[in-house]
């Protein structure tokens, strides 16, 4: 946080305790286009690839895919890690590559294929992360596997799998064989729709080599992918958030290499790169008994990353994927151990997501760059305690409130339309200090052939209670006549399994009846029954209260 933050926090409680004297007037002009609506939220990722095909993993993937109007891209770590395929926190393995007694490569795609098959069965698309290092190729093969758990030293995880290859030619052949196998199994037309990216966060301890050794790894990997499938899309580097000077310099150096540097494999200038990727993370803190989010940190990462990419004319038009875009960094760090993560089970996480996702599009427009997607790095953790405070979308098969925001976002289709909303926080203020004083009441709207959809969120960085916002929503540009209105809501009462779980006594072994109730409460619910309204002269007006950290989706169809 900035030095201004403590000063601003002095006013947070005062701002939250004051009731709104007037309604917040939001104008939506459904007849005025405001640019394309890119469903950048249709991207998902996680550390533990073996959860993919487990019971609750399959269930959540099905639900996330069903929530999206377009195919969802999925990214997972450790797809080349050596091991038995047994999942653990921040660990996964596929045993795709081993060597025989003579050092000859042995390829086994059984587990990799099982993961990819699970995606394709749900019409999802792999965002294939090429990593990490198989034990037989690592320059430091021992120790290789960690046994990390929440509370342990985070640096203990970076073992043999994070090291450069002892033979770059063998590494390249592994990548080539993987892509070649994928084309043979799934067909060229299918694999052409995938994305391939090299490694993860190579600017920190996920890569135990030098920046130059990563550039070499990228060049060898990109050439191998293109040899196997010239039309494949390769990208990187999925470095950490460039909001700080160290990560910013690393990102610039990598992009300079792919544009102007000598290719380590071909000896020519430049490397193939079809999309660009980096990460953006917030930074919540536990302050005076409550969580204060750090949304400004995530937005600064986005802002700086887009600025850097836009500074390279050769790269400015290329698609960008935010490989991880989240409120903070460690999905497996349970709030039971890390108090600053206690926002995750309830409406803080859902309202944060609703307000930050549209800002991705605003920041991309600010810099004139081509944002393709933003990966939410949150999945599920199989067989862990109920609501243990992991950064996940579901717990033991029970959907959390945040998943319902993705259901809302998935209902937004067509084109963006104009919104006038003085109550929304400006990008400049959010970049400077987040949302520490007046709540950000934000609206985001789209229009399709026979519908208008409006997402309204009431967000504040503090989890302390505050008054509801009184919304006066005025919509113009509608067809005259009768229009059906559906009003969906996520708050403490609606679409909230966490509150339902607490009300039944927080059971760690729910009865079948309790489990069914929790499943039902985790779905997206209407605030009221659908009703018909009259659009007189193409206008409609709606008034409603929106609790702090509540999210509403208004859908008008005709």
Describe the protein's architecture and organization.
The active site is at 201 (proton donor). With 558 residues, this protein is α/β, with parallel strands linked by helices. The chain has two domains: 5-34 and 413-557, Glycosyl hydrolase domain, family 39 (Immunoglobulin-like, Sandwich), CATH 2.60.40.1500; 38-410, Glycosidases (TIM Barrel, Alpha-Beta Barrel), CATH 3.20.20. 30% of the residues lie in helices and 25% in strands. The protein has 13 helices and 25 strands. The chain has helices at 5-17, 55-67, 110-121, 168-186, 188-191, 211-228, 245-260, 295-310, 347-367, 401-410, 427-433, 497-503, 512-521; strands at residues 24-36, 43-46, 73-76, 97-99, 105-107, 125-130, 195-198, 233-239, 275-281, 285-287, 290-292, 319-326, 370-374, 376-377, 394-395, 398-399, 415-420, 440-448, 451-459, 469-476, 481-490, 525-526, 531-535, 540-546, 551-557. Strands 1, 17, 18, 19, 20, 21, 22, 23, 24 and 25 form a ten-stranded mixed β-sheet that branches. Helix 4 packs parallel to helix 6 and helix 8 runs parallel beside helix 9. The protein is globular and about 75 Å long.
């Amino acid at each position: 946080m900035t030095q201004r933050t403590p000063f601003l926090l002095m006013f947070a409680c005062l701002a939250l305790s004051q009731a709104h004297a007037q309604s917040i007037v939001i104008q939506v002009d459904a007849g005025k286009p405001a640019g394309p609506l890119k469903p950048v939220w249709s991207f998902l990722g996680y550390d533990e690839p073996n959860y993919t095909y487990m019971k609750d993993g399959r269930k959540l993937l099905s639900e996330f895919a069903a929530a999206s109007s377009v195919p969802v891209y999925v990214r997972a770590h450790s797809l080349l890690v050596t091991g038995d395929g047994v999942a653990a926190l921040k660990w996964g393995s596929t045993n795709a590559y081993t060597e025989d007694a003579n050092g000859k490569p042995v390829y086994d795609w059984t587990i990799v294929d099982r993961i990819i098959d699970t995606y394709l069965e749900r019409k999802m698309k792999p965002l294939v992360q090429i990593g990490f290092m198989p034990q037989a190729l690592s320059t430091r093969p021992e120790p290789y596997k960690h046994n990390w758990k929440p509370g342990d030293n985070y640096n203990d995880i970076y073992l043999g799998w994070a090291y450069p290859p002892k033979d770059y030619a063998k590494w390249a052949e592994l990548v080539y064989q993987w892509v070649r196998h994928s084309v043979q199994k799934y067909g060229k037309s299918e694999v052409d729709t995938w994305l391939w990216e090299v490694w993860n966060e190579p600017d920190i301890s996920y890569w135990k080599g030098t920046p130059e050794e990563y550039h070499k790894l990228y060049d060898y990997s990109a050439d191998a992918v293109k040899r196997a499938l010239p039309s494949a899309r390769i990208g990187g580097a999925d470095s950490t958030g460039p909001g700080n000077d160290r990560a910013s310099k690393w990102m610039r150096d990598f992009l300079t290499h792919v544009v102007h540097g000598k290719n380590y494999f071909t000896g020519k200038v430049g490397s193939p790169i079809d999309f660009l990727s980096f990460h953006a993370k917030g930074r919540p803190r536990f302050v005076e008994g409550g969580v204060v989010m750090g949304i400004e940190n995530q937005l600064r990462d986005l802002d700086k990353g887009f600025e850097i990419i836009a500074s390279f004319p050769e790269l400015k038009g290329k698609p960008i994927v935010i490989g991880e875009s989240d409120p903070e960094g460690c999905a497996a760090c349970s709030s039971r151990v890390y108090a600053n993560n206690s926002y995750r089970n309830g409406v803080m996480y859902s309202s944060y997501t609703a307000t930050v996702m549209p800002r991705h599009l605003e920041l991309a427009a600010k810099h004139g760059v081509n944002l393709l997607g933003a990966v939410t790095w949150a999945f599920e953790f199989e067989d862990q305690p109920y609501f243990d405070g992991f950064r996940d979308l579901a717990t033991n098969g029970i959907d959390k409130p945040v998943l319902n925001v993705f259901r809302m976002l998935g209902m937004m289709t067509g084109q963006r339309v104009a919104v006038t909303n003085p109550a929304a926080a400006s990008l400049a203020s959010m970049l400077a200090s987040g949302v520490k004083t007046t709540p950000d009441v934000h609206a985001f709207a789209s229009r399709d052939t026979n519908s208008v959809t409006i997402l309204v969120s009431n967000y504040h960085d503090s989890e302390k209670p505050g008054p509801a916002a009184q919304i006066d929503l005025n919509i113009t540009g509608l067809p005259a006549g009768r229009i059906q209105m559906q009003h969906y809501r996520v708050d403490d009462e609606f679409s909230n399994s966490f509150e339902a779980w607490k009300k039944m006594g927080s059971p760690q072994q729910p009865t079948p009846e309790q489990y069914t109730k929790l499943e039902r409460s985790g779905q997206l619910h209407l605030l009221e029954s659908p009703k018909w309204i009259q659009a007189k002269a193409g206008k409609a007006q709606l008034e409603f209260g929106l609790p702090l950290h509540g999210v509403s989706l208004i859908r008008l169809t005709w």
